[in-house]
């Protein structure tokens, strides 16, 4: 029988507990001393778990951008237009591939927000997020892991399942909360795939939840049954009550606000400045059913604008001309 190193370390630690010295600060009763020794032993075991059991991060980040897979990223910076076009064909090929092998996926996070605003990728988005059920993730890992797919342009995509996906507790595996990736092997752009599992949190009322390893959780009746829709001209599923999920994650304002400044989160007014010198303001055009770039703002002016918004809690509108 093979014994892992973490088990061996536990055996040694527990064996050494009887040799722990008495604490010299004050004289303790035997029971209290036993409790203190037990706590010390628990801390040592926990430290051994951290030393032996925590896996390293599987998906490497690129030095050029955290939104590129480090194995395939290129030093040449993609323009906003190029990134948007590549993400579009990447997610279209992903959705068609999952349909071919009969795996159900649905949109999540900013991809779901993009679906709300015209069923397209948001022009400032840098990756795509989807959910699948844990049972489908196990199926992908067993039969389709490390498969390379091609599209009509001869671009190649890698379906790469994180080997640590079976550990569902993020505290035990904090660096591997992405369960799988669909990666464009030319640029390193990707679709992040996170699985959800059924959990029962409200046993009295029988409410079930879907829990992802990254900490996101949803009422199951807000997600299921899924609704069939389209995204980037490809069929896709979305949660049954997508508006409620988006309002909870991004705020009610994210469903109504039609002006997006630079890389400011629509609901939270958080500024994420990139290495690009200009930043772009977008306005939603209801007639064209898409976001349109309306002007370019210098980085310094963006900093000033965002700082003023933060000071005044967004109670004034700063007009940039």
Notes on the structure:
- The protein is an alpha+beta fold.
- The chain folds into three domains: 5-53; 58-256, no CATH class; 257-321, no CATH class.
- The protein has helices at 5-16, 30-53, 80-100, 109-116, 134-143, 220-223, 242-250, 299-312, and strands spanning 105-107, 128-133, 147-150, 156-161, 180-184, 190-202, 207-212, 217-219, 227-231, 234-238, 259-261, 278-285, 290-298.
- Strands 1, 2, 3, 4, 5, 6, 7 and 8 form an eight-stranded mixed β-sheet that branches.
- Strand 7 and strand 8 form a beta hairpin.
- Helix 1 runs antiparallel to helix 2 (30-53) and helix 4 (109-116) packs across helix 7 (242-250).
- The longest helix is centred in the first third of the chain and has 24 residues, at 30-53.
- It is globular.
- The relative contact order is 0.11.
- Residues 1-27, 263-278 and 313-321 have low confidence and may be disordered.
Q: Mean pLDDT across all residues, rounded?
A: 78
Q: Sum up the overall morphology in one term.
A: globular
- Multimer state: single chain
- Percent strand equals 15-25%
Spans of at least 5 consecutive residues whose pLDDT stays below 50 are 1-27, 263-278, 313-321
| Number of distinct beta strands | 13
Helical proportion?
25-40%
Number of domains: 3
User: Structural class of the helix and strand makeup?
Assistant: alpha+beta
Q: Quick one: biggest sheet?
A: 8 strands, mixed
Q: How do the helices and strands follow one another from N- to C-terminus?
A: HHHEHEHEEEEEEHEEHEEEH
Q: Radius of gyration in whole Å, from Cα?
A: 24 Å
């Amino acid at each position: 029988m093979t014994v892992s190193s973490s088990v061996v370390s536990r055996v040694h630690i527990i064996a050494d507990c009887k040799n722990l010295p008495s604490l010299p600060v004050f004289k303790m009763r035997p029971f209290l001393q036993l409790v203190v020794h037990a706590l010390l032993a628990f801390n040592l075991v926990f430290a051994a778990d951290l030393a032996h059991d925590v896996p390293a991060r599987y998906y490497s980040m690129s030095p050029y951008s955290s939104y590129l897979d480090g194995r395939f990223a290129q030093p040449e910076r993609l323009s906003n237009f190029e990134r948007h076009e590549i993400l579009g064909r990447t997610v279209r090929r992903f959705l068609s591939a999952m349909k071919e092998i009969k795996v159900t996926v649905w949109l999540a996070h900013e991809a779901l927000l993009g679906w709300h605003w015209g069923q397209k990728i948001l022009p400032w988005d840098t990756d795509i997020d989807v959910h699948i059920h844990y049972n489908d993730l196990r199926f992908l890992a067993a039969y389709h892991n490390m498969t390379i797919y091609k599209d009509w342009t001869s671009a190649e995509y890698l379906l790469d399942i994180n080997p640590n996906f079976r550990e569902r507790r993020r505290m035990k595996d904090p660096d591997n909360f992405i369960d799988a990736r669909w990666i464009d092997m030319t640029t390193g752009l990707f679709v992040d795939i996170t699985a959800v599992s059924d959990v029962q949190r409200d046993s009295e009322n029988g409410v079930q939840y879907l829990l992802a390893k990254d900490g996101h959780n949803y009422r199951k009746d807000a997600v299921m049954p899924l609704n069939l829709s389209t995204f980037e001209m490809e069929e896709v599923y979305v949660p049954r009550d997508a508006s409620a999920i988006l309002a909870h994650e991004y705020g009610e304002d994210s469903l109504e606000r039609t002006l997006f400044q630079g890389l400011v989160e629509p609901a939270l007014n958080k500024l994420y400045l990139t290495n690009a010198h200009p930043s772009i303001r977008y306005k939603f055009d209801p007639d064209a059913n898409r976001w349109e770039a309306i002007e370019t703002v210098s980085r310094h002016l963006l900093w000033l604008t965002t700082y003023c918004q933060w000071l005044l809690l967004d109670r004034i509108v700063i007009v940039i001309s």
